[in-house]
Specification:
The chain has 7 helices and 4 strands. The chain has helices spanning 6-22, 27-37, 40-49, 87-95, 103-114, 124-131, 135-145, and strands spanning 53-57, 63-68, 74-77, 118-121. This is SWIM-type domain-containing protein.
């Protein structure tokens, strides 16, 4: 069962296809992104342009995404269950039901679709610390990227 509505899944496939063919997202797809995902679409595209998204994997096959938000804060999020610890996700998506995703999750989806997501492999021990929400694991990755 897909996590996103069918129209959103198809839109991301269209973005992937167009970006592979033209190395850009055409205006009609940008309008569709704004229509389907709301105001966070442009913010998510900005995060993608800034190369703020990293897919972190471990030898055991675990995967998380880390997105550096506009404020510089590093968010560890999970696209498979659509969870982000940012305040916008808690308030706008979960409490108010105002959007499908926050800008960080959408940026992770878009960066994958566009093939511009940075990749990083970590040990299973570090991944366990990331999954447990231990701050020092995230700081380790941030300092390793600088």
């Amino acid at each position: 069962m897909p996590l996103l509505p069918v129209v959103a899944e198809q839109l991301l496939r269209d973005v992937r296809s167009s970006y592979r063919e033209e190395s850009r997202i055409p205006d009609d797809l940008l309008i569709a992104l704004r229509f389907v995902f709301g105001s966070c679409a442009l913010q998510a595209l900005d995060l993608v342009d800034q190369r703020s998204v990293t897919c972190v994997t471990s030898p055991s096959g675990r995967e998380v995404f880390q997105v550096t938000g506009g404020s510089g804060r590093l968010y560890t999020l999970f696209t498979r269950c659509q969870y982000c610890p940012c305040p916008a996700f808690s308030f706008s998506v979960l409490r108010r039901g105002e959007g499908l995703l926050c800008k960080h999750i959408l940026a992770a989806y878009l960066s994958q679709a566009m093939g511009v997501c940075r990749q990083e492999q970590v040990s299973d021990q570090l991944m366990t610390r990331l999954l447990a929400g231990q701050e020092d694991a995230g700081e380790h990755l941030r300092s390793a990227r600088v």
